Amino acid sequence: MRQRRELPDEAISDKIASAQFMTMTTSSRRQRVTLMASRKSSTGSKRKVQRPPREKLLWMYRTMMRIRRFEEAAEDAFRNARMRGALHFYIGEEATATGVCADLRTDDYITSTHRGHGHCIAKGGQLNKMMAELFGRVTGYCGGKGGSMHIADLDIGILGANGIVGAGIPIAAGAGLGVKLSGEDGVVVCFFGDGAGPTGAFHEGVNFAAVKNLPVIFVCENNHYGMATTSANSNAGPSIAARAVAYGIHGASVDGNDVFAVHAVALEAIDRARNGGGPTLIEADTYRFKGHTVHDMAAYRAKKELEEWLKKDPIERFKKTVSTEKLLDAEDMTGIDSEVEREVADAVEFAEASPYPELDSIEQGVYAD
Amino acid sequence: MTTTTTAPAVREQAPEEERLIFLNQALREALDEELERDPTVFAIGEEIGIWGGAYKVTEGLLEKYGPTRVIDTPISEALIAGAAVGAAITGWRPVAEFMYVDFMGIAMDQIVNQAAKNRYMFGGKATLPIVYRAAMGAGIGNAAQHMQSLEAWFAHVPGLKVVTPATPYDAKGLLKSAIRDNNVVVFLEHKGIYANRGHVPEAEYLIPLGQADVKRIGSDATIVSYSRQVLFALEAAEQLSQEGIEVEVVDLRTLYPMDIDSAIASVQKTNRALVVHEAVQFGGLGGEIASQIQEKAFDYLDAPVMRLGALHSPVPFSEPLEVASFPSVETIAASVRKLLEGGV
Fold first, then answer.
1. Which of A174, A200, A365 minimises the CB distance to B83?
2. Phi, psi values for residue A262, rounded to 5°
3. Within an 8 Å CB–CB cutoff, is residue B119 touching chain A?
4. What is the spatial order of strands in the sheet that B306-310 belongs to?
5. H/E segment holding residue B32
6. Which of A269, A201, A281, A212 is nearest to A242 (CA)?
7. pLDDT tens digit string along A219-263?
8. Which of A334, B97, B119, B151 is the most exposed place for a label (fewest CB within 10 A)?
């Protein structure tokens, strides 16, 4: 164990006290660990989650449908050779981004991943600008310079998808530091996958957020595979959420295909972060219905495994719950279905009708004035 | 050998009284003034607060500005670089310190794939005003993992600016400009010159990035250099002057954007060029500089452009080996003599 440095000089002690202004005290950390240890995992909990109001329910359904239809349209365009590059589909995981973002404000931030379309849509991204970006057109979010893996909309707090696994975690910690320095009550949500669990960036980012008590919610979307490597072959320990104990922060495991469960856990974490309670590490158990990329047929997965997960389709589960509990009418949803289909078709049309960026723009936008 | 009667020009004296301060002090003044001036500026890094920075650049700033402006971090270089990205993209102006440029290897993804590219990838919309400061350079015996000159790594990446001052005056003016710049600036401070003293005026001043400085006027050959090697080149020039050789010394100061025009203007006058840097010669910026001089001033050259950089080894520990591994006053002077005899 590391020896604590001797502090013979009173002035130095004062300095240290001052430097630890932003740091949790040891006793508060210990308390958190206790809280965490006594906390029941949300998975398998029979506690009925309170349902959100009607407007929120409609938003949730619309958001999940926008994600699914957007990606289906992108896949179609890709398979018809109208689009190129890499596409990482979020289909099957819609409930996680939707549940987490349901109560974020426009001025809250998210960092996203290579599998980022869902996060972007749930945070309020515009489908036509997203689709145009996927098509490499000048009207896209990034003017065609970024593509699927680099969509950002800084005006609504989307700090960017990311082509490097785990890289968003230190960035989220930095955004959280900025929020804390500003004295405002914003929060930062950091999405990452189980593939980022073993990266050094995960440890450095989560550790720093814990040490400085930053308003960051780390959301691990455990879809069980990093390319073909299973989460079990990537991540040691009982779960990724369990690592919260080691960092002395709150942690939660949640059924990532249950939008209500995700929403409830996220609400608690957001509330804590807004009120100075520091970071939370949420692990959402979910599954990608498609392969790693559009090129991957996922032959490494058992057919039965996919079939089991398809039965847990987050959108179908939502529909079942809202009709069983008589929260929404079928017409509410069919109305949204047709609106979303039109919106997505319009986005594709907008994208394909848009021009490519000018060739003389290649070296533009590298540096700011 | 060319002989000349042109006397070496003396650099214009500052009109005010000389105020000699150390280079690390000049950097501290720059940070202090910018922290004072702009509330969105903050410093972040390992041991910059309580310790005051490994080379005491940030000493006293924690006491003055408190822990929300001078932020000590754990030993997490990727976090330091990434936190700067997250803070910058949300409106802050972080000045992040890496104790040694060698440690930036741990943070390269954040610097190269995130900080440097975010603006471009996001369609020119993001602004990341970040300064990544680090100590670089050999000569003080800390061996292969603390003594490197890695500026070429960064200068090669579109989206980064690279600054390498040689004097306290330049260090202060350039750091202030770097902090005010809306781009990602890698600011490399040679650890062998932190304790050098030089004149720094009391009044505020800025030195624009991307502007070279002719540190000595001469007519027989041009040495293009940066960072501490500029000082070695100036010493070599004094020795050569005793032999009747007048060397012009162009200090690039900023490596990207590079003021190659100043180097070329000098070569057009002297017709001979030697590029000197402490980084390993192979693949170093000397190749880029020499190539541009040859492309743009070929007709003016009386000899091939020469390069002088470090030998192809990690920085050795043992003092005689370390000192012999990179250019010295003697090897620079010898190279100039060779250049005047027709080069390689």
1. A174
2. -60, -45
3. yes
4. B213-216, B247-251, B221-225, B273-280, B306-310
5. helix B23-37
6. A281
7. 999 999 999 999 999 999 999 999 999 999 999 999 999 999 999
8. A334
